[in-house]
Amino acid sequence: MLRFLPMLGMMAAILVAASLPGRVLPFLRYHNFDKLCHALAYAALAASCLFAFQPLSRKHPLSAGLLTLAVCLGYGFAEEAYQSLIPRRVTDGRDIMADLLGAVMVVAGLQLVRLRKRPD
């Protein structure tokens, strides 16, 4: 059960960031900096999910990766829906794509590392 604490912590951090009113974060509008922040946050969430799902990952690495992507995508949709309730914040489908990109990079990276370590 302790393996899930980092994942829950990342989810809480993302929720806190999504709860901030838009006037507090004006710098995010420049050069799509918010997309980079989304990708990095969801990359960290994916890493914490993979840590939580490590027992599953040993026997079924593809299932653990897909479950991680599903959790990140579902949480991304939930975060954007929640964010629409916050003053001066908007729901943006590109944010969800950035979330998914960050998660895919971590999951794919781990899968590539596993393939390289596999004995022939």
Task: Characterise the protein shown here.
This protein is mostly helical. It has one domain. It has helices at 5-19, 33-52, 54-59, 61-83, 93-117. The protein starts with a helix and ends with a helix. 74% of the residues lie in helices and 0% in strands. Helix 1 (5-19) packs parallel to helix 4. It contains five helices and no strands.
Explain the layout of strands and helices.
Elements: H1 5-19, H2 33-52, H3 54-59, H4 61-83, H5 93-117
Helix pairs in contact: 1-2, 1-4, 2-4, 2-5, 4-5
Radius of gyration in whole Å, from Cα? 15 Å
Provide the succession of SSEs: HHHHH
Kindly report the oligomeric state of this protein.
single chain
Strand content: under 5%
Helix count from the secondary structure assignment: 5
Q: Uncertain runs with pLDDT below 50, 5 residues or more?
A: none
> Which class do the helix and strand fractions yield?
mainly alpha
What is the rounded distance between the termini? Answer: 35 Å
Count of strand segments: 0
Apparent shape: elongated
Overall tally of structural domains: 1
Major β-sheet annotation: none
> Mean pLDDT score, rounded?
89
Q: What fraction, in percent, of the residue positions are helical?
A: over 70%
